[in-house]
Amino acid sequence: MTTPAAVAQDTGRVTYLNPTGFVQQVERQLTPRLPGVAGKAAGLLDNGNDTSSYFFASLAEVLETEYGVSRVLLRTKFTSTRPAEPSLIAEIGEEADFLISGVAL
């Protein structure tokens, strides 16, 4: 008679999870696009990375010299890990015709 080298142990119960769930969808309306940016005030919101100020300074220059933007309002968030302060968003919203926000490395 042969002796088994190993005996299978009951390892327990296997549970299968269904990863699908309810997804909340919200209808939103996009803001109409500007016909152009010439003569408009641009808002640039730098998310606060160490070197992104160089990118946004260059972008501001290009917007003014090549696209005819009348002025650039360049603002920087305190940190990229937190949302912008409501007062900062309000300021840009009042003074700029459009906003470019981002992170540049």
Architecture overview:
- By secondary structure, the chain is of the alpha/beta class.
- It has a domain at 41-102.
- 25% of the residues lie in helices and 16% in strands.
- The protein has two helices and three strands, in the order βαβαβ.
- It has helices at 52-67, 86-95, and strands spanning 41-46, 71-76, 98-102.
- The chain has a three-stranded parallel sheet, with helices on both faces.
- Strand 1, helix 1 and strand 2 (71-76) form a beta-alpha-beta unit.
- The longest helix is centred in the middle third of the chain and has 16 residues, at 52-67.
- It is elongated.
SSE map:
Elements lengths: L40 E6 L5 H16 L3 E6 L9 H10 L2 E5 L3
Parallel strand pairs: 1-2, 1-3
Q: Characterize the largest beta sheet: strand count, sense, and whether it forms a barrel.
A: 3 strands, parallel
Overall body shape:
elongated
Structure summary, number of beta strands: 3
Contiguous low-pLDDT stretches (5 residues minimum) are none
Report the β-strand fraction as a percent range: 15-25%
Gap between N and C termini:
71 Å
